[in-house]
Structure formats: C-alpha cells, structure tokens
Amino acid sequence: MKHFLRVVTQFFVFLYCKCLWRGLKFVIRKVTGRCELQRICHNNKPGARRTLKIESSLKYSKNELCQSALSAHPDRVEKTIDDIMTLKKVNPDTNPQLGISLQASLFQIVGYRSLVAEVEKLRREPYDCENPDHEEMLMKLWKTLRPDSPLTGRISKQWCEIGFQGNDPKTDFRGMGLLGLHNLLYFAEHDKATALQVLHDSLQPKHSKMSKAEWEQKNFDKAIGYSFAIVGINITDLAYSLLVSGALKTHLYNVAPEMPSLSHFQQTFCYLMQEFHRFWIEEDPCDIMEFNRVRSKFHRRVLRQLKNPDMALCPHFAASDLHLVNL
Q1: What is the domain range of residue 131?
Q2: Which end of the chain has a smaller Cβ tally under 10 Å, C or N?
Q3: Total number of domains in the chain
Q4: 201-248 pLDDT, tens per residue?
Q5: How many CA atoms lie within 13 A of 317 on its CB side?
C-alpha cells in the first residue's frame, strides 16, 4: 500500500512540475521575447554547458520535430536547424548567431551518437586470427612496444612481456573485441614514449630483495607489477562505460568543436591509461589482487570530475602532458 501511495504521489508531483515548468517557460518567453533555445545559447558559452542544456531542451520538448532532431543524420543537421527556427518563429536574418550556435551543438549531439555506434561495432567484432588485418595490427603492437625483440612465433610466451595472460593474445580480447586492440595500438603509436614508460614501469616487481639504496640507484622508483595489455583492455572497458553512459559528453562536448570522432575516444583512452598508472602508484596496493578495488575508486574519481560541465581533458593531445583542466 505504501509503495502504491508513493508511486501515485510521484506521478502527481511529476504532472505538477511538468505543467508548472511549461507555464513558467511561456511566461519567460513573453517577458524576454526569447524562446528557451535562444536563452540557452545567449546565457552559456560554447561547449558542454551549452550543448547539454540544448540536448535536454530538445529531448523533453513536447514537439516531435525537436525530439527527432537528436537523431538527425549529420547531412540533415542544417535543414533540421532551419525547421526548428521556423517552428520557434525566430528570424534567421535578425538572429544569425542562434542558427550557428544550434548547428554546432547539434553536430556534437549527433556526432556523439555516431561515435557510440562506431565504438560499439568495434567492441562487438571479435579478434579473428584468420583475418590478416587483425593479425597485422597485433604484430604492429608487438613491434612498437618491443622493437628490439623479434617474436619467436605467433604463439609464444613472449606475449606476456607486454602484459598478455598467455601464449595467444586473441583470448584476452574476448571482452572488448577489436576495440581493445585498437586502443592499445593507438596508445603505442601516437604516444610511444609514454606507452613504453608505462610498460617498463608495469614490468617492475612490486617487491624486491634489493636494498632501498640499490633500488633508488637503478631508478626503480615505480615498482607496481601489473599486466600492461590486460590493464589496457580493462581501461578500454572503463572508457567504453563512460561513453555509453553519457558521462563522457562533458569532455567530448568541450574538446570537439564539431562531431566527436573515434580519435577523440582513443585520446581519452590514452589519458585514462596514464592517469590510472599514476593512480595505481599513489594507491600503492599490496598486489594485483587489489586491481578491482583500485579501478573502482579511479572510476568514481573520473565520474566526479566529469560532473563539472566545464571540465575537459587537455584539447592538445599528448598523453604525457594531458591533465584535467577547467576551461
């Protein structure tokens, strides 16, 4: 009975708020002479703060044209904006900036949806050792991370040197499919120095029989001991969850002036890899068995940071220099 009353109460509160809000919007428009979209564009600078509000306004609009704008094809964005301005009775000649602002935000919105679909397609595609393209990418990863150590064979214990679990890496890609391989290779090729440093650090044992003086003399100050490739696939999963949940909109709407692309997602992965590496060292876990705890804590920290609509990763990509900044 209590549950029923709670549901009924919530329903009436929803109706009340919905009617009140629409009435309030009507009054504000009459007073200011501007529709909600005009007010959003006028009162918010370009980026996530503006685009998130425009997205919300279109999503909860009672008009089907506004709602359908969120799933418009990129080629139809300009026409969609013209239709919305006609619907809102906004003269494009006297308000040219509104059309420009709405178009930029809508490109970001539909681009984000396209990126989610592209990333999901890669995640669902399994690694196929019979596919020469897949094999070529895997070999590139080895050669980039181990340029002075030729593989003795396709099936080899050497794969453990870059953090795979067994003799054949294909089994480790099951969870994230080709997306994990794409991200690892992007990191290795586009920020090679950082990737090699993270790999080197990951290979250092957590504990050593060396004395503290010997350890410091050899510059082994980052003794962490985790599997580079496995952690990379796991951080790919973290980046994927941020993307599909919408949490990554804050970052992407701030750094991609138009449509977010796969490269933006991969740059985000590189940043997360480096930041997790630092976070792992700061947490100083006893062993790899604490990985899930540390990962969950790191995930929560990133989510908190991304709740700030002005937060973004450094837009000039160099993973070694990336850090969260307030725009």
Answers
A1: 125-326
A2: N
A3: 3
A4: 888 765 444 444 554 445 444 445 789 999 999 999 999 999 999 999
A5: 18
